[in-house]
User: Fold these one by one.
Assistant:
Number 1:
Amino acid sequence: MPDKDTRSIPSWPRNERPREKLLERGPEALSDAELLAIVFQTGGHGRTAVDLGRALLATYGDFRELSRRPVLELREHPGIGSARAAIIHAVFEIGRRHASLRIDAGDAIAGPEDVAHMYVPRMRDLPRERFIALLLDNAGRVIKEKVISEGSVNASIVHPREVFHAAVTELASAVILLHNHPSGVRTPSREDHAITKQLVEAGRLMDIPVRDHVIICGSSYVSFAENGWL
């Protein structure tokens, strides 16, 4: 009898089919490739959906690295194409949003640990730097999250007028600055310090203080306030 992996999944024994296995034993019983197979639903290019999952994991190693690959790259893999590449990105984005317990209007920020807890899952795997301002009321509750820029963080992109226009518009009493280092490097750059100093000084003039600047570095963070850099 041919190996089950060379036949279509519906022909496999019931207890070895990914979907049936999940329903009967729970998702924790499935391998990473089997989870991808459920997402894909069907195979392609003469391979089962499990084969497609295995091929991707053989190339990228794990889900974290797979989640960082752009759609244009993923769709070039045999059997993936644009539709499955889009599905992969959607699934990982759902996971990031769920894991982050995203800050909502009315949530209070007690310290940088709160910021890191909510934003590390969302930002640690971003391929580019993203600079965010969290606008706070006088009780330290979040009024709004404002994305200021994406790309390399520098003074020409992160300008005080962008940050404090949003703060004034939303009647914010204070702001927390936040961005990520895609490299995972924990040491703030000279540019990070320069931008922070510029925004802190602008905040003093506007009477809208900068409470902190938190940098997400992989699965950890660095706080300017904790280090006495503000």
Number 2:
Amino acid sequence: EKEGGTLGLLVAQGVRLRELIMAKASARAVLILPLLALLLWLAALIARTDAATPLDWAALAFLFGVAAAYAAFWLALSMLVNSFDWRSETNGVVLANLWLVFVIVLPSFVNIAAATLYPAPSRVNLTTEMREAAELADAAAAQSREAYLFDHPELAGAGAQLDDFYLQVLATDAAVERVAEPLLTRFEAQAQARERVVGLLQFVSPAIAAQTALNSLAGTDNARFADFVGQVGEFHAGWREYFASRIRAGKRMAAADFDAIPQFAYRPPADALAYSAALGPLLFTLVVTLVLAVWAAVHFRRYAIV
């Protein structure tokens, strides 16, 4: 409007600059927010969300709030850039570069910083060390079996009892786990430290904060994955003990025992945990948006109409 000469005419007709700016911002919000709500509603239908479950719709409402706050951030940022009274071409270039910084450069910087401060242990080295540990444990177990059979030659051959062999296999597995446990613990500790760095650096960009909040609400964040892995580990320990206890007791599997084999069922955490994890990034985005809007309002007070 200013470059075309219509801004001065609008103000001369009694239209305040603040009213004009709010009208333009509201027009864009009216286009974006209903479309966002429609897409979320369609996603809920595709996912067959139960309308009778308040928690599902509460999660969708929270999701809409995060997406709306992220859209408001970009709207406030565009208002701030326009308040500096640059030409429209300059505004477009500045906003495009800011998008690259917030969406691409800063997230890449966060990943590089986390990887530099807490580099992930090499999975190749981890696999190699575990393989070497397994080979050493197998070799030790083989020597034990050979010594045992040398002392009990009646157990060798086709008529040998398999119970002792199975006990040796259990001992071998236990030896491998004892060697691998510190390696896996070190690997997990390094990964957790890296995630803490990412959690702190997420507040350098509203794009990272919004993505973190969305991951928490969707249940695809690192905390949910760690909880899943922990439950899998607990189930595996119980599942293995179910068979190991029978091997140690020399019991054979009966038909009823097969029906009693443990079955894994993931127990998701309470929805309140996901909301609390998403609340921090959401509040950060809202605060940044408010700061940008106030900054833009201060600049527009000194904006030259002509």
